Amino acid sequence: MDGPPPTLAVLLEVDQRLEIYCHNPLCRHEAVMAPAEAVARLGADTSFEAAGRRLVCTKCGEHGRDGRIHCRGSITDYYAYLRRRGGANLKG
């Protein structure tokens, strides 16, 4: 990968929610955080990987520092952003 990893600041730029996944095989909880809340709680300069390490699953208590919590920007929100910009020929 070239350059620094993407940070949570991109969530505000694109109006994209943060999707959070617990990878504990007995839990598999999923949560969503609004962009402004994610940036306020975790910091705009925080990478997605670092954000995952700082979170704890609200269902099973799994800690992200153990590598079981993963985060990403919402793909659905990103496609909506592209459609609003008129820059993508996407169905949906």
Describe this structure as you would to a colleague.
The chain has 92 residues and is an alpha+beta fold. It has four helices and three strands; from the N terminus they run H-E-E-H-H-E-H. The protein is globular, with a radius of gyration of 14 Å. It has a three-stranded antiparallel sheet. The protein is 35% helix and 15% strand.
Gyration radius over CA: 14 Å
What's the overall average pLDDT, rounded?
92
> What is the number of independent domains?
1
Class computed from helices, strands and strand pairing: alpha+beta
* Proportion of helical residues: 25-40%
Strand content: 15-25%
Number of strands: 3
Helical stretch tally? 4
Which strands sit side by side, in order, in the main sheet? 2-1-3
Report the oligomer: single chain
End-to-end Cα distance, whole Å, is 30 Å
Major sheet description:
3 strands, antiparallel
Q: H/E order of the elements?
A: HEEHHEH
* Poorly predicted parts: none
Shape: globular
Distinctive features:
alpha+beta; 92 residues; single chain
Structure described in brief:
This protein is α+β, with helices and mostly antiparallel strands and 92 residues long.
Topology of helices and strands:
Elements: H1 9-14, E1 18-22, E2 30-33, H2 35-42, H3 48-54, E3 69-73, H4 75-85
Antiparallel strand pairs: 1-2, 1-3
